[in-house]
Structure formats: C-alpha cells, structure tokens
Amino acid sequence: MTLFIASLNSGSNGNCYYVGNQEEAVLIDAGLSCRETERRMRRMGLPLSRVRAIFISHEHDDHIRGLEVLSHRYQLPVYITQPTLDQCRFPPHQDLVRALDPGAAITIGGLTIKALPKNHDASDPYSFTVASPTVCIGIFTDIGVVCDNLIRHFTQCHAAFLEANYDEDMLMKGRYPWPLKNRIRGGHGHLSNGQALELFLDYRPPFMSHLLLAHLSQDNNRPELVQQLFEDRAHGTTIIVASRHNESEVYAIDGAYHGIPGHAWTPEGNRKPAPAPAAAPPVSPAVAISAARRRKALAAGQSKPSSTQISLF
Predict the structure, then answer these.
(1) Where are the alpha helices (DSSP H) in the chain?
(2) Phi first, then psi: what are they for 225, rounded to 5°?
(3) Distance separating alpha carbons of residues 36 and 25, to the nearest angstrom
(4) Which residues of 38-52 are buried (b: 16+ CB within 10 A; e: fewer)?
(5) Is omega for the bond preceding 282 within 30 degrees of 0, making it cis?
(6) Distance between CA atoms of residues 62 and 142, nearest Å
(7) Are 130 and 4 in contact (CB under 8 A)?
(8) Distances (CA, A) of 96 to 41, 78, 84
(9) Which residues of 54-84 are buried (b: 16+ CB within 10 A; e: fewer)?
(10) Which one of 67, 157, 166, 222 has the fewest beta carbons within 10 angstroms of its own beta carbon?
(11) Largest CA-CA distance found in the chain, in angstroms, rounded
(12) Domains by residue range for the chain, with CATH
C-alpha cells in the first residue's frame, strides 16, 4: 500500500510531518499554528479531514506550539506520554489525550505507528515509524546519538525523515557560546551532517527510495551543503532537504525501489563500539567520513537528561 509523506515545516521554528494513505493519515508533532497548518495542508492538496491523530515526540515548543488549538478544532486524539504531557505548555483537552505506549504498536485504520525511545534533552522523547502492510516510514529527528534502536528501525524504512542539524565546522566556528555548542553535540542534542551521513551510508536499506533531511539549524548549516553531501553518495535514493520556511512536495512511497544497501543491522554484541560524543572544547571536527569510519558502529546513549521547555537549536 502506497504511503504519502510530506514535511509541513522542519526546524527550530516549528516541526510537523504528514504520513498517510488514501483513507487516513497522522501528523507527527504540531509545531505550527493551527491556521498555518491548515494553510499548508491546503496548498499541498491534503485534506485535514483525512488526519485521524497527532503523535507528539516531546514537549519542546517547536513540536507542540499548535497542538492545543489544532487538536480541539478537529477533535483529533493526541498520542503523548504522561511525562511529556506534564511538561507540555500547550496541552490538548484531556478528552483527546491517548496514552503513548512505546512497547505497543498503535493501529489507526491501515496505519501502524510505533514509538521508539531516543536521546534528546526532553522529559520522555520518542521517534516514530508509520507503516502500511508493505511500506514503512521513519521520523527520526531531535536525536543526540545514533543508537541500536535507531539503526534497527532505519534499516526497515522505505523512506525517512532524518535529522541533519548542523555542520561540524560551522557550529564550532560559529557565534554560539560553548555551553550551547556542547549541548547540541553532547549526546542529548542533535545529529550532525556527518553523523546522519554515516548512518545513511552504513545502514541504508536497498529499498529506501527517499530521504528527507530534517531539522537543519538556521545558524549552523546550509541546505545546499547538506544536499550535496548526501547526493554525492545517494546511489539512487532521492534526497530532499525539508525546509524551515515552507512545506515540501507530497511524495508517494510504494516500496518498489531497490538500490545499493548499507550494512545489515546486527545485535550490539556483534558490533564494535564507536567513541562517545565529545563534551568539551577544543575539538577538531571532521566533515569527511572515511571508508574505515563508515564501517564502525555507532554509540548508544542510555541516560535521560532533565526536561527543558524550548528548543534552542
């Protein structure tokens, strides 16, 4: 069954992603105002009446800013964990709240949604996959490190929204104070272009037809830079940079593409650990990724930090 995907917006000014079939759809996050969400859905030719639920990844304002009004106006159930709800500044009406259980698949019509824990500086953050019987879509943003959970689900995706937040050189040479730089790259912040590319090169499944690069930093990245970085190594996968200013096109994912795969996922015990993320200056960042490094596995983070309300990235 073909799935249709689109980014309504992607960045620290608001995040919202659409995944659906011909009958029903879900939104991942609601970081735009209700009015702007309506406007962009109309421009994409996607009826809001098709949306059956909203899934919330975490409580930062750029992911929930439109949640209260949007869910109330369209009476949309909101799947959210209790720790995230407790920290939510724009909570949905209690009658619309549905428990988000990361251990269980949620079925909405012909869609199956799964939540997977991730590393980010929020109370209880999750990534998602949305699948039909034949196609799987991943939404992987706001991730501090690449862990086994992410790798295992990435290898199952026919298309994915994948964070490529910052260019290492731009971040380290930029205007941000050192505490913020270290927060971004310290394991509970965001993925760099290099980290995202390494995941893509090592673990891209042969059926991944589209990769939407998401949540780019306005100050520490450039769309043309990351587009070229991935296109040079895409081997047939269509690379799209999700804008922080406009909605994307609507992409039909039918699962038919077969290209060049990366490595298969294996249990952690059979993988070599990679170095943990650096936490303090000075650092000499490297943008180029060598063939030897691409074959190394990526580190998994375990602990969760304290909650914060507003994304600064």
Answers:
(1) 34-44, 61-64, 67-74, 82-86, 148-154, 168-173, 178-185, 193-203, 223-231, 291-294
(2) -65, -50
(3) 18
(4) bebbeebebebebbb
(5) yes
(6) 11
(7) no
(8) 22, 6, 15
(9) bbbbbbbbbbbbbbbbbbeebebbbbbbebb
(10) 222
(11) 53
(12) 3-294 (3.60.15.10)
CA-CA-CA-CA dihedral for 47, 95, 142, 50, to nearest 10: -10
pLDDT tens-digit map of 8-22:
999 999 999 999 999
How many distinct helices (H) and strands (E) make up the chain? Answer: 10, 14
Confirm if 147 and 119 have CB atoms less than 8 A apart: yes
Nearest to 150 by CA among 181, 212, 195, 183: 195
Written as six digits, the tokens of 222 are 């450039």
Residue corresponding to tokens 């899934």: 55
Residue 137: what residue type? I
Is the separation of the CB atoms in 208 and 259 below 8 Å?
yes
Query: Which pLDDT tens digit goes with each residue over 47-99?
Result: 999 999 999 999 999 999 999 999 999 999 999 999 999 999 999 999 999 99
The residue whose two tokens read 């040079």 is: 232
216, 221, 224, 228 alpha-carbon torsion, rounded to 10°: -90
- Amino acid identity, position 11: G
Tokens of 308: 């914060």
Q: Facing residues of 126 across strands?
A: 117
Scan for tokens 């200013």, then name that residue: 245
| pLDDT for position 296 | 40
The length of the chain, given as a count of residues: 313
- Supply 91's token pair: 């909570």
